[in-house]
Fold this sequence. Notes:
With 115 residues, the chain is mainly alpha-helical. 56% of the residues lie in helices and 10% in strands.
Amino acid sequence: xxxxxxxxxxxxxxxxxxxxxxxxxxxxxxxxxxxxxxxxxxxxxxxxxxxxxxxxxxxxxxxxxxxxxxxxxxxxxxxxxxxxxxxxxxxxxxxxxxxxxxxxxxxxxxxxxxx
Length: 115
């Protein structure tokens, strides 16, 4: 599972204050979606309907500096500075899988020894 981090002072950030609710909702929903898809903050234009967003809301996010226009969609500004990147998530998953493999192997050995 990937996580999308939201600062607990977002509500008072100058980029956030003037945004309409729809743009705010799009930002949060798109962030969670991009994190879950491991897209490193990219939001394809085709995903807007899925995210209940509009081009006008995306434009407001660009104007506020929270998003940057990119070929085929938008990017969250400074994603890698605040969010786990795809590589970081994949590395964590690999470590977790290895830790679980070692734990299971140890557990199975202990069960075999007690039989």
